[in-house]
Design goal:
The protein has about 60 residues and is of the alpha+beta class. The strands form 2 sheets. A two-stranded antiparallel ribbon has the order 1-2. Strands 3-4 form a two-stranded antiparallel ribbon. The protein has 2 helices and 4 strands; from the N terminus they run αββββα. It is elongated.
């Protein structure tokens, strides 16, 4: 979980959109592995289901053995 209060990460990752008089962020989900590599990027997030989707994704991405 990342709180990006100043929007630096959003700007760096191009999820902040400038709409003339206002800036809005897109809801996206990123799962980063312990090695620092991007494991999953979901560009079309539904905030009402993310509490179910992310744990399921983490389970799927967990190494076996």
């Amino acid at each position: 979980m990342l709180a990006d209060l100043e929007g630096k990460t959003a700007r760096d990752d191009v999820v902040l959109r400038d709409l003339l008089l206002a800036e809005i962020t897109q809801c996206r989900s990123f799962i980063i592995g312990p090695d620092g590599k991007l494991r999953k990027h979901d560009p079309d997030v539904d905030p009402s289901t993310q509490t179910q989707v992310v744990p399921a994704d983490l389970t799927k991405l967990k190494p076996t053995g």
